[in-house]
Amino acid sequence: MTERFRKQLARSASADAPLLACGVVGGDPYLEALPELLGALVRGGADVVEVINPTSDAAYHGTVIQRACQRALREPFALHELLEQIRRWRDEDPTTPLLLSSYYNQFLAPGLERACSAMVDAGVDAVSIVDLPWREAEHARGYIKDAGMLHIPVMAPTTPDARASEILASAKEGAVIWAGHVGGDVSDRAQALERLIDQCALGATTSVLASLHVSTPAEARAVAMACHGVLVASSVVWLVEGKGADLDERLTSFVESLRQALDA
Question: Does residue 32 have a pLDDT over 90?
Fold first, then answer.
């Protein structure tokens, strides 16, 4: 499973093309819509798709994703039901890497070993546990790695340089998510980008995907110029929130505009 993700990172690096990752919340607007939403993102040009496993207390995400989690959980579902929808999509798309983002308690309920095995069976390539600090994640990382997936850590702008170097070094064969909205609000985008550039320099061989509330193609290009790629979730989820009969087309069109800006 790690090979799909690593090959995509290598392709982006060799082509000198910023990587575009786009995410949705599983279960929003309803669980069975997930395969179609992921397909729309891939058609638009997403290199990696992210599925956020919803929780009732998504404290590490912004208000758009928090609202999506609340909508998704109006009809609660278990991890294995979410994975079944991922498996449906994977049957149609055997090549696009998929990142599953979650809070730690979502994996503890079924048990780490059982959860990791089920994720691999469904076609998940990488896992990010957004509320698990790096130095407390060794136990979970072991299960994820043994199952054949990548662990993708989340790093905040407030991470000290020494800790950032440690995280980047340990993830040199995968990627790190640099979340500008974690660890305090970043109101000055220029300051955030400067910090992003500084921290990317600490791990030159590690791919860094920046999540900075990108909502326009110009913002996507500005962020990608400071690192290796962008992770766009809130703006995608906001479109899902609006729904409409042409949702798939609007998602594809939005992702296409991001892709074109990154390739320009």
Answer: yes
